[in-house]
Amino acid sequence: MSAGDPAASGEDAAGQRRRRQALVDAAAMYGFVTAGGVIGSLLRWAVALMLPVADGGLPWATFFANATGCFAIGFYATLTGPDGRLFVGPRMRQFFTIGICGGYTTFSSFSLETFRFVLSGDVRSAALYLAISLASWLVAVWLGDMLAFRLNNMRGI
């Protein structure tokens, strides 16, 4: 085939369409994740407004956001998983898990708050916060998973 051959130009046009579609798909995925991140970040900000940090107290807003975010991701992953009751495509899964949950939960704030306890010499609060946070997050993911699993197995709904 030569460059002027109609078959060669048809393959080239098809390749360009595939590349263009791949770029559109990637841009759409980034858009979904970004939109979810905006929503999650705004929700996290609202939690911080509703649960302000008391002087010398544990940072309950971060704890609450991370625990409820862990519950939500456990629930959603099971509800929309291969054996789940709800089918969603990859964009919706990324929108919720990476976008909303990623914007809502905040490991960086948790790390900074724990570090500040240590810097202030309050190692006991740092250890307590670390222990209750990790245990609570794992339990929250498990509870979300179990609730969705039960919902997935209910008949008639």
What would you say this structure looks like, in words?
The structure is a single chain. With 157 residues, this protein is an all-alpha fold. Helix content is 78%, strand content 0%. It contains 5 helices and no strands. Helix 1 packs across helix 2 (60-79) and helix 2 (60-79) runs antiparallel to helix 3 (90-104). The radius of gyration is 23 Å and the shape is extended.
Overall mean pLDDT stands at 91
- State the helical fraction: over 70%
Largest sheet entry = none
Large-scale geometry: extended
Using the CA coordinates, give the radius of gyration. Answer: 23 Å
Give helix and strand order, one letter per element, not per position: HHHHH
Which runs of at least 5 residues are low in confidence (pLDDT < 50)?
none
| Class computed from helices, strands and strand pairing | mainly alpha
Number of H/I helices:
5
Secondary structure: number of strands: 0
Cα distance spanning the termini = 59 Å
Share of residues in strands: under 5%
Throw out a few tags for this protein:
157 residues, 5 helices, single chain, 78% helix, mainly alpha, extended
Summarize, please.
The protein is an all-alpha fold. It contains 5 helices and no strands.
